[in-house]
Amino acid sequence: MRWKAVNAEIPETSAMGQWHKVWHAGGEKSGRTFRLVEDNLQEKLMKEAGFVDIQVKDVLCPYGPWPEDPREKEAGIVTKAAFENDMDGKSLITAIILVT
User: 35 and 42 in contact (C-beta within 8 Å)?
Assistant: First the structure.
């Protein structure tokens, strides 16, 4: 997963820009990759497993309650809550990997 802004780039120097670097470094140090989307791993592994007619679709998901559309607003609220409530766990596991 990679965070993207719809109308602008997320600066590499921002907290979100830096978080990706730390997250990916943790994956590399653990001998695994956390670049499932960037490396197109899901599609590759599904093909290896014998699936055919695989369709890949990028889906924009809002982060927060800003959309006017009620369905998108709800998706944004849930996405933000899920990410923020799991940030400690993601950060902690990455920190443990990087220092060991």
Answer: no
